[in-house]
Design goal:
Elements: E1 2-4, E2 7-9, H1 21-33, H2 37-49, H3 58-70, H4 74-86, H5 94-106, H6 110-122, H7 126-138, H8 142-153, H9 159-176, H10 179-187
Antiparallel strand pairs: 1-2
Helix pairs in contact: 1-2, 2-3, 3-4, 4-5, 5-6, 6-7, 7-8, 7-9, 8-9
């Protein structure tokens, strides 16, 4: 957000940012009418959390995520997988959760790829888990690097596996690192943006 004349404005549309949850929801609903996948995804998150003045409603969250997923949001598809995995707004179905994680991973979602790795690890398919963790590490998943480290500490992965994952992750960070991202992270009191 850009502060122009003391008013915080959106860097893209240059209109003042919402000052209340109600105003934010109103704007998101307008964007939903235009088939904006990001707005639908965000509304799904807000319903799932019960935030910004909305009552927690997993069924509505899932409806928004399904529509956002149809419009191409890999984050929404990942949220659908989570809904099925935990039975939020739908009957718990681990097989269906896996299908949605696979779809989101094919769309490039690193969190979905990590989740598939985790599921493979839980099923004791360590070589398959390692493949998914490595792909996720290459795409910037610090959680996957930590998972490989844990597998290494248990004797299921080699030192070379861990070193490769760490190298992939560091290359990713070096590729996306900018002073603007560092400044944004600092303004939010977070050390990193990755």
């Amino acid at each position: 957000m850009v502060a122009l004349g003391g008013v915080v404005k959106c860097p893209f549309c240059r209109i003042p940012t919402p000052t209340s949850g109600n105003e934010m929801i109103k704007r998101l609903k307008k964007r939903e009418e235009l088939d904006d996948a990001i707005a639908m995804y965000q509304m799904g998150v807000f319903f799932s959390e019960g935030s910004h003045g909305l009552t927690q409603d997993y069924t509505k969250a899932l409806e928004h995520s399904l529509r956002a997923g149809e419009l191409g949001s890999s984050e929404a598809v990942t949220n659908i997988a989570v809904a099925y995995y935990y039975g939020r707004g739908v009957e718990r179905d681990v097989k269906k959760a896996r299908q949605y994680w696979e779809k989101a991973a094919m769309m490039g979602n690193v969190n979905a790829r990590h989740s598939i790795g985790y599921e493979e690890e839980e099923a004791r398919n360590i070589s398959r888990a390692m493949k998914h963790y490595m792909i996720a590490a290459r795409d910037g998943s610090g959680r996957s690097v930590k998972a490989i480290l844990q597998l290494y500490s248990k004797g299921y992965a080699t030192k070379e596996d861990y070193e490769n994952a760490l190298q992939f992750f560091e290359e990713y960070v070096a590729e996306i690192k900018t002073s603007q991202r560092d400044d944004a992270a600092a303004s939010k009191n977070t050390k990193y943006y990755y």
